[in-house]
Amino acid sequence: MINIREVAKMAGVSPATVSRVINGTARVSAEKRARVLQAITATDFVPNEVARSLYRKSAKLIGLIIPSIKNPYFTQVASIIEHMATEHGYRVFLCDVGDDIEKEEIALQTLVAMNADGVIIASTNEAIQDYAAMCQIPVVAIDSLFATKRIDAYVYCDYYAGGRMAAEHLIECGCKNIVCIKGPQRIFSAKARYEGYRDVCREHGLREQTVTCDYDFKAGLAMTEQLLETFPGVDGIIACNDVVAISTYKILHRKHISVPDQIQLIGFDDIEWASLISPELTTITQPIQRMATKAMELIIDNEKTTEKGVEIVFPVTLTVRETTKKKGSCK
Amino acid sequence: MINIREVAKMAGVSPATVSRVINGTARVSAEKRARVLQAITATDFVPNEVARSLYRKSAKLIGLIIPSIKNPYFTQVASIIEHMATEHGYRVFLCDVGDDIEKEEIALQTLVAMNADGVIIASTNEAIQDYAAMCQIPVVAIDSLFATKRIDAYVYCDYYAGGRMAAEHLIECGCKNIVCIKGPQRIFSAKARYEGYRDVCREHGLREQTVTCDYDFKAGLAMTEQLLETFPGVDGIIACNDVVAISTYKILHRKHISVPDQIQLIGFDDIEWASLISPELTTITQPIQRMATKAMELIIDNEKTTEKGVEIVFPVTLTVRETTKKKGSCK
DNA sequence: TCATAGTTTGAAACGGGTTTCAAGTTGATA
DNA sequence: TATCAACTTGAAACCCGTTTCAAACTATGA
């Protein structure tokens, strides 16, 4: 691979001058500039990014740590962050770490060792904070809030309100027998959503009926089967997220239970697939675009935000589609 | 950030000795080793990955260039590659470039400048070859084959056979009036799939009926609407991939056309969503796992493969699910 | 006890782009 | 024409982990 010294030799100047031409960091005489430019074109020289970031101590790199690249929620987040980063001259390094706290920790260390300028973490592991607090670069959590706030910022939405909205909507749609498929309660969003549902039940004097299920398709299938056995009279289901809602629908469809006529169904997140599948899913919409954008802004503008534990909360909205309907109203 | 020289000072040894302890590249006396290890623990020292890869000229990094991170086909590929890479001590840098040849070229340049050890490209742009041929690192194309073979290797499957299988299956299921939603014909896989369909039509004396559509959800919706107007008697649809098949189903469902009773539907790829949605999609299965694994092997074992333009072709299989059924047979 | 082979160790060079600093130029003003 | 400011330029230091090379040291055999 050709290096800057060879380009300099070819142009008859010093490496410093070539660097100045490339980066526009100082004035260079027109004549030398032309010679340098010509040598660069002739050799297809591209500066070695590694040497650059070694000196600059910035790789123009933002790390994004997610539990699974196969989860459409996270790929939507990743896509937005990727596009924003490109606009601002950054690159994104995506780390798919599963639920493995150790992998998460290694990813964070690696990102620091790669001179990343900041990290966005979509994690459910509170322990990650220990490592995040140690590293010198800005770290923003998306979609979670931990009891002890040691990360620079937390971007999430009002999950509790979402849980309430979901329950209230099903009640408005005439459901008398609502079951909530709770997510794992160690996860902040799952807990808040459940609490929203629980409080609405109490206020309306409805019995609280729940099963617990991982945020994942397979678990959703199994839990729906179980739910139908445990609560045979169910007429409304709140799934802990859209992926689980889709698997719930799958079981209902297989059992020839009509949605929304016999059982109404609502999810959370409003991932793109929610409106792509048939029937389209009624869900609680998270402003994914705004959340991801905010998380990126916090990283990029980090010079300004000096305080720790900043919380940015976004509102959620109800998006009614085809898996719920007001009783008596025609489609 | 602490560096190796400070650790060395603390342990009372030279940086060279610290490096030797960390990497196990030479013998170090037990006493000094212990002092070094202790200093590393005390300071939480993690070697700067950038300085390392500058010297080594390898970042233990594999680039993966894909058109969209939101397309589940590519995230499945990415997931497999990510896991294989981790096993082999590599990291994966994912570049989402859209259909933008310029972005693709920049991604490739950046990867080279980042000292990547190899690149896997899932591209439909033949022009990328010019850049791929120039860079000094192994480049493997997945899912495509270009007329002029200038990339190190091409990993793809027998799309033509897939096209034939799809058409033959619909014929066996009693379809008389099959429409093929062709993908963009500049794309190798789309062209081969169409040709398979075309040849089967000719052999069976069926009329060849097609519309053309991008490999993308929105395009699929529009094209299905158009298809139904142009070919009102259609009883079987071959979609150019699963994503388009899912959008086709969406339109049929919306128009209360029963699948598979009135129209049978088959896709290509067998992405995970094909079996998650309801009804489950009949499709032509690509061995995604095997393809991605092979592509990675070609990169990792590159010392051995010296020749250019290696072609690795995998077979496809028919996976019958719920959107097709043999006429007369009961479910 | 001396010579030789083998081991341990650190100084210095290396990778490649960037930046500082001082020297060399040019041009304008007195 | 002499002087000083402003600009252009390259040598060298820098970022930091790795590796080479030669020096210093240990141990073995004669």
Description:
Two copies of one chain form a homodimer. Chain A is α/β, with parallel strands linked by helices and 331 residues long. The first copy, chain A, folds into three domains: 4-56, lambda repressor-like DNA-binding domains (434 Repressor (Amino-terminal Domain)); 61-158 and 288-314, Rossmann fold, CATH 3.40.50.2300; 159-286, 3-Layer(aba) Sandwich (Rossmann fold), CATH 3.40.50.2300. Chain A is 45% helix and 17% strand. Chain A is built from 13 helices and twelve strands. The first copy, chain A, has helices at 4-11, 15-23, 30-43, 49-56, 72-87, 101-113, 128-134, 159-172, 188-203, 217-230, 242-254, 272-276, 288-300; strands at residues 61-66, 91-96, 118-121, 139-142, 153-157, 178-182, 209-212, 236-238, 264-269, 282-285, 310-314, 317-319. Chain A has a six-stranded parallel beta sheet with strand order 2-1-3-4-5-11, sandwiched between helices. In chain A, helix 5 crosses helix 13 (288-300) and helix 8 crosses helix 9. The radius of gyration of chain A is 26 Å and the shape is elongated. Chain A starts with a helix and ends in a 12-residue tail after the last strand. At the A-B interface, helix 4, helix 5, strand 2, helix 6 and helix 11 of A face helix 4, helix 5, strand 2, helix 6 and helix 11 of B. Chain A binds a DNA duplex (30 and 30 nucleotides) through residues 1, 3-5, 8, 13-20, 22-23, 25-29, 32, 47-57.
